[in-house]
Amino acid sequence: MTGYAKMKILILALCVATVLGSVTVANANVVPADLTCEYLTNPLGLDVEHPRLSWMIESDHKSETQTAYQVLVSGSKNALDAGKGDIWDSGKVTSDQSIHIPYAGRALTSGERCYWRVRVWDKDGNPGPWSKTAFWTMGLLHPEDWKAKWIARETVLPPQSQPMKGAKWIWFPEGEPIKEAPAAARWFRKSFDIDQNRSISSANIAVTADNSSIVFINGHEIGRSSDWRAASEFDITEFLTAGANTIAIRASNDGGPAGLIAKATIEFQTGNPITIVTDAHWKSADAETSGWNSTTFDDSTWKSALELGDADTKPWGSPRSPNLNVTPAPLLRKTFDTAKPIKRATAYICGLGFYELHLNGHNVDDTVLKPNFTRYDKRSLYITHDVTSLLHQGKNAIGVILGNGWYNCPAPDAWDFDHTPWRGTPRLLMQLDVEYADGSHQLIVSDETWKTSTGPITFDAIRNGESYDARLEKPGWDTPNYSDSAWELARIVEGPTGELVAQKTLPNKVAKIVTPVKVTEPKPGIFVFDMGQNLAGWGRLTVSGPTGTVITIKYDERLAPDGLVDQVNASLVYGGNFQTDTYTLKGDGVETWEPRFTYHGFQYAQIEGFPGKPTVESLRACVVHTGFDQMGTFECSNDLLNHIQRNALWSYISNFVGYPTDCPHREKNGWTGDAHLAAEMGIYNFNPEANYTKWMDDFDDVQKPAGDFPGIVPTGGWGYDIGPSWDSAYLLIPWYMRLYCGDSRLLESHYDGIKRYIDYLTGRAENHIISYGLGDWCPPVGKEWSHVTPSALTSTAYYYIDVRIAAEVARMLGKTEDADEYIKLADEIKQAFNEKFYNPETGTYSGEEQTGMATALYQGLAPESDKDKIFASLLSEIKKHNDHLWCGILGTKYLLHVLTDNGRTDVAYAIATQRTFPSWGHWIEQGATTLWESWEGGGSRNHIMFGDISAWFYEALAGINPDPANPGFKHIVIHPHPVGDLTWARAEHKSMYGPIKSSWSITSGKLTLEIEIPANTTAAVYVPAADQAKVTAPQEAKFIGLKDGCATYEVGSGSYKFITK
User: Fold this and answer.
1) DSSP string, 374-443
2) How many beta carbons lie within 10 A of that of residue 755, not counting itself?
3) Hey, which end of the chain has fewer CB within 10 Å, N or C?
4) Contact criterion met (CB below 8 Å) for 660 and 674
5) Which residues contact 183 (CB under 8 A, 6 or more apart)?
6) What whole-number percentage of the chain has pLDDT above 90?
7) Greatest Cα pair distance in the chain
């Protein structure tokens, strides 16, 4: 079931208790398996008061259901094996609920280890065997449980240079350019002399303009600037000459304030430098003249530039330096003795921005880029590690490496992450609890007795890359016998101001190693590795060569015409290198290295400085993403659709390194619109639920008191006022979690935030219409924002569905007055929406375009009496475009589902299988291995926002759908749509209850549908057939009737085959 049916606001019926008879014999046909706690398998360090427990049921019996369960939780495995629930014994609970069972025992304590198992009773009241044992542990639940102190190597950030000190903002003298200037170019010059007797040692110029500039020295173009917030610096030494010289700059304004600022510094072998700054002595013109940038040009008729103010003048402020002043990654260590046999050792650690924890020379696990990104002035995450196996009796050593991560972003960028309220030097909080066999404990905590030094990581920044000098390695630094006498004592520092909470997500991992498909040498000594796949991660370098050899690795997803890596995605990062790693050899045989504290989006990696000629074994790609399990598969007889599915999967994992992002290179930002548009396909294919749960807390951290949200989450303060089409992720993703996972807690726990947001939108609305916000982003024509559909239409549509969801959450919580108010408000929004945008004569919305009509139909805004007319208009519009979609990301989300819901899957299939512009197939024809940002191919080539077609594959083609009336796949709707030239399709989704399978094929005109339904669920099955007599159905299938060209049946769990004649 797709489209608006999934969004219907329903009141769930209470579970009816089943009366159970007395039983004595265990039934091996109902075996609980795949036990999870808060979506995780055996999680460590939870801080949830009532953790939720879930299990699947394995059974060979058809129509098997759970009628009761019993959960035992014990403080030891031995006690649990003996049948003792000394922490909690639920007793026999009459219920068919097997997911999200809240722990209901005594209050749990910090560090407590909870072993648990479960047994269930079958449909006949017979008990099954106990499950295998699972466990969870509690974290540190109270601030006073932390005895550790925050420590660091450096207490303050290094000073940032002021590249424009002494310079003035200038512009052509016209009106008040500091407030408003024409959208046009202006030309500027400054001439100066260099004494012929002086030898230049170095010369550079820093330039920026609002909005851009082209810089010339003596007629030669030497560089360009593209953003006024950061200076662009260029080496001009080779362009200067003895005698007359000229700096010439073409500055362009896109509208609004206009300004130019520049500073050139020329150093000599002896004597004082020359400094040239922009000021009123510069000449300016409002028209280009031939030869204007040469030294011989006569500028006597040009006007003196207008000074606008010093470098820090508003609205610009002093431009930031592109040179990133970052200290090397610190190493911290602590030795300690253990005198008695050890029972267990648990480490609790928060290392900001990223950390790597070692114990006695070993990395404690294989996870990377931890902890996950949060708004650190609101909340920081600590992680719990069981390090028992790495500790031994006697002398031990802890070692920690810290990276900058998101905590200390040094590069100026479009989102101001270098100016966040939390930014500081890397720092550590760690507590190791050693529990001895005799029951005593020893705490080793981070404090001023720890030692610190620098290591081989000389630079790291999340978007810029990492530099590693192997000559600076300190062998054995993380082992007990290493001499740290030359190391400094760590310094006590303030911790982040936010709350310290446990990380309850899947970790980030190196999930796969990719070998390049080829290596080219487009220029002598420059080698380009083609991984054959666009991905997120980094390179693993294998090399041998002389000590001090510097290898540079530059990453991106496309090539320039000359065969070199084209870093087009660097446009919004204004300082330092972009996606560039460097490695300096120690010169000791074969060396293997990969970065720790950065990641890149790329298909191509360009190496310079490699000693000799590399092979495909010299650089492999480490694919990095959140460590999902694959929970779904889809394939069919159409190779193009299979390719689109693969591309969607690669884009999803590339854009989930701890949290959902828009792209893995240019931004790495948690764009909320991209995330909710891809959430359903994410849940079908993977298990992102724990990470989505954490991300909803990130929304709470950034919600303003008035209720509004930013467009990127987390944020340091940038990006508010983006609009409901993006902000609605706060409601939609929890809604999808309820629909697909049966999780109501997420909606309920965020109800206060939902209310504030609805109040905020209602305050912004005029006559129930929301006119602000981004709209149908990235349409087939024009710029990203050039959507044909008015943003007021899509913003109001999301306002409507948000209010409908709020009404349902209020009903779930028993807040009937709230619910009634929201239903009334939703009806008013719907009426206003149609009065504003609907043309009843033509059956169209805001002109004849696909997004408006698809939006109204999908979100339940279309008048019931006019739905057929509107749908006919939509079909007509699609026909005008020769069965192509003509939508941006919002309309594309709806279009295929609306067509299927209204009986025209054939048209949806025609759109999905196009190979010409605009289409997913058009990307593939151009070599795409991921989904792109725009239909025409500009911008990023690894975006997920067009990825919902994967969900359509599952729901429409294979036919696996949730039932909104019984969410979480408690009741399943199997409704495949054989269409077009498809001869078969199959899909599997591992739901919270177990695997759901649907597979159909057509042979000699006969359709065979095979399905598998997990225990403790039921399913409605739609078999394509106009007559029941044409269907050979299994005996257990109960015929319901004919509907929408299908014979419908109801089945319980088990495997079934239907055949149509």
Assistant:
1) --TTTEEEEEEEE-GGG--SEEEEEEEEEE-TTTS--S-BTT-GGG-TT----EEEEEEEEEETTS-EEE
2) 17
3) C
4) yes
5) 253, 254, 255
6) 91
7) 107
Distance between CA atoms of 324 and 464, rounded to whole angstroms?
10
Which residues does residue 284 pair with via DSSP β-bridges, in sequence order?
Answer: 188, 303
Same domain for 389 and 247, yes or no, is no
Mean pLDDT of 701-705: 98
Phi, psi for 815 (deg, rounded to 5): -95, 75
* Domain membership flag for residue 82: yes
106 and 253 co-located in one domain: no
Q: What is the 3-state secondary structure (H, E, C) of 714-739?
A: CCCCCCECCCHHHHCHHHHHHHHHHH
Q: Do residues 724 and 844 share a domain?
A: yes
Domain count of the fold of the chain? 6
Residues 876 and 731 in one domain: yes
Per-residue pLDDT at 6: 53
Q: What string of DSSP letters covers 924-990? A: HHTT-SS--SSTT--S-S---TTTTHHHHIIIIII-EEEBTTBTTTTEEEE-----TT--EEEEEEE
- Marked catalytic residue, from 680, 933, 955, 988: 933
Reported confidence tier of residue 753, pLDDT bands at 50, 70, 90: very high
When mean pLDDT is compared across 3-17, 22-36, 718-732, 763-777, the lowest value belongs to: 3-17
d(CA 699, CA 717): 12
Task: Indicate whether 36 belongs to any domain.
Answer: yes
Q: Checking DSSP bridges between strand 342-352 and strand 379-386, what pairing results, if any?
A: antiparallel
Residue 792: Cβ within 10 Å count: 20
* Separation of alpha carbons 744 and 747, rounded Å: 6
Sequence length of the chain is 1061
- For the question of residue 667 being annotated catalytic, the response is yes
Helix (H) or strand (E) holding 503: none
Q: Which of 58, 667, 808, 988 is catalytic?
A: 667
**768 and 646 in a common domain:** yes
3-class state of residue 533 by DSSP: strand
Domain containing 555 equals 510-626
Q: Which two tokens stand for residue 406?
A: 């998101």
